[in-house]
Specification:
- With about 325 residues, the chain is of the alpha/beta class.
- The protein has helices at about 5-10, 25-35, 45, 50-60, 80-90, 110-115, 125-135, 155-165, 180-190, 200, 210-220, 240-255, 260-265, 270-275, 300-320; strands at about 15, 40, 65-75, 95-100, 115-120, 140, 170-175, 195, 225-230, 235-240.
- β7 (about 170-175), α9 (about 180-190) and β8 form a beta-alpha-beta unit.
- α2 packs parallel to α4 and α4 (about 50-60) runs parallel beside α5.
- It is globular and about 55 Å long.
- It binds flavin mononucleotide.
- Flavin mononucleotide (FMN) binds near residues 145 and 288.
């Protein structure tokens, strides 16, 4: 399968594994790249330039195929060492960086000078156009369905993707709610050059997370995610649990008086307990509506092969015969 994204990334299939905090370790990124997709290591999970360099080295030991690094720009009183992380990426000869969160403009020069291509994750058309205008090479358009931060506009992909196709010149991938060959074919039909998946890749054999996390995805339906931190305009789609219910109650009772300090216990530093130790009620964790389409835990290769063979069937048979 050849699209502008497979050409840009140098991969066989237009399937990207988006950066995921405490999930996007070398094991998962390498498995995705080895299966013909594009794996991404999550930079901030490593935290320091030295650790990120080591994780990239570990990934190189597991795959000879291309893979990337995610850099998420977050509001923080003590920001991570972004220049150092970028230097680690450049020194490690990474060719593709997925940026997310704030406008990445001030961090682009060192990446561009090193010839690195940047895919910026956007939840709106205006942010996608901005990314294009500042020199990003592609965008990952994240619809309202997505796990993580869907933005504040609440536009699902059936509207967002055709809008992106109408407005953008740079290539874009469809992100949020992607699970199978149907997602891929629909995205291509709407003008995307491929798909980006988060939640679906967590329920794979190679995802280096506790079995309880995979089981939670199997148990959940499309009715089981919630939106938290909306009053702070930092909305996150998460899997419901007791911590989420506690947080939503706090949001309701504090009303206009809410600030980040009031809720940080439920959201800060909770990922290691959940992802690595399987303590599922320790806090809130990102999860997409697509959990309603997850019914098994295949290997990454089985998942990607299945997506491609279903997509081929849909294009060559079902659609061709209509
Ligand atoms: C557990 C989890 C953690 C995530 N962490 C990050 C992150 O650190 N940085 C980022 O840019 N996106 C993050 N995302 C978003 C994904 O990269 C991707 O955009 C999103 O999951 C796509 O929606 P989907 O879950 O419906 O596939 C995370 C998603 C999940 C499910």
């Amino acid at each position: 399968m050849k699209t502008r994204i497979t050409e840009m990334l140098g991969v066989e299939y237009p399937i990207i594994q988006g950066g995921m905090h405490y999930v996007g370790f070398a094991e998962l990124a390498a498995a995705v790249s080895n299966a013909g997709g594009f794996g991404i290591i999550t930079g901030l999970t490593q935290g320091t330039p030295e650790k990120l360099k080591r994780e990239i080295e570990r990934c190189k030991e597991m795959t000879e195929k291309p893979f990337g690094v995610n850099l998420t720009f977050l509001p923080s009183l003590t920001p991570p060492d972004y220049p150092g992380l970028i230097q680690a990426i450049v020194d490690s000869n990474i060719r593709i960086v997925e940026t997310a969160g704030y406008n990445p403009e001030k961090y682009l020069p060192p990446l561009k000078d090193a010839g690195i291509k940047v895919i910026h994750k956007c939840t709106s058309i205006r942010h996608s156009l901005k990314a294009q205008s500042i020199g990003c090479d592609a965008v990952s358009v994240d619809g309202f369905e997505c796990g993580g931060h869907p933005g504040e506009d609440d536009i699902p992909n059936f509207i967002l993707l055709p809008r992106a196709a109408d407005e953008l010149e740079i290539p874009f991938v469809a992100s949020g709610g992607m699970a199978d060959g149907r997602s891929l074919v629909a995205s291509l039909a709407m003008g995307a050059e491929g798909i980006n998946m988060g939640t679906r890749f967590i329920a794979t054999k190679e995802a280096p997370v506790h079995e309880n996390v995979k089981q939670a995805l199997l148990n959940a339906t499309e009715l089981d995610t919630r939106l938290v931190m909306r009053p702070l305009r930092n909305t996150e789609r998460v899997l419901n649990n007791v911590a989420v219910e506690r947080l939503l109650k706090k949001e309701k009772s504090l009303g206009q008086d809410i600030d980040f300090a009031a809720i940080q216990d439920e959201v800060v530093g909770v990922y290691p307990e959940i992802m690595l130790n399987g303590k599922m009620d320790s806090g809130v964790w990102s999860c997409g509506l697509v959990t309603g389409l997850i019914n098994d835990v295949p290997t990454v290769k089985e998942l990607i092969d299945r997506i491609i063979s279903q997509a081929k069937y849909l294009i060559n048979q079902r659609l061709a015969e209509l």
